[in-house]
From TrEMBL:
Keywords: ATP-binding, Helicase, Hydrolase, Nucleotide-binding. InterPro entries: Meiotic_Crossover_Helicase (IPR052247). The keyword ATP-binding applies. The keyword Ribonucleoprotein does not apply. It comes from Noccaea caerulescens. GO terms for molecular function: 3'-5' DNA helicase activity; hydrolase activity. The lineage of its organism: Eukaryota, Viridiplantae, Streptophyta, Embryophyta, Tracheophyta. This is Putative ATP-dependent DNA helicase HFM1. Pfam families: HHH_5 (PF14520).
Length: 82
């Protein structure tokens, strides 16, 4: 899947189709990370955070990297159990 998306990106670059280039780049990135770019569990990309922890953080309102940086560490410990 990701090899095909990278091939599509190269093709669109060759054809100077920039919308196609952007779309295929985002597709390749999503396939590589096994996570869509608009997923509510973006924090799953961080090392040590699996789906259970990502869902727990999402339930407490932490849905972005910025929100995680601003969140109270004690509350994160309570919600995630770590």
């Amino acid at each position: 899947g990701s090899r095909i998306a990278r091939c599509m990106k190269e093709y669109f670059i060759y054809k100077k189709n920039y919308k196609g280039t952007i779309s295929s780049t985002l597709l390749a990135k999503s396939l590589y990370q096994k996570l869509w770019d608009d997923s509510p569990y973006l924090l799953k990309q961080l090392p040590g955070i699996g789906m259970v922890t990502a869902k727990a953080l999402h339930s407490m309102g932490v849905k972005s990297f910025e929100a995680l940086a601003e969140a109270d560490p004690r509350r994160i410990e309570i919600v995630t159990g770590r």
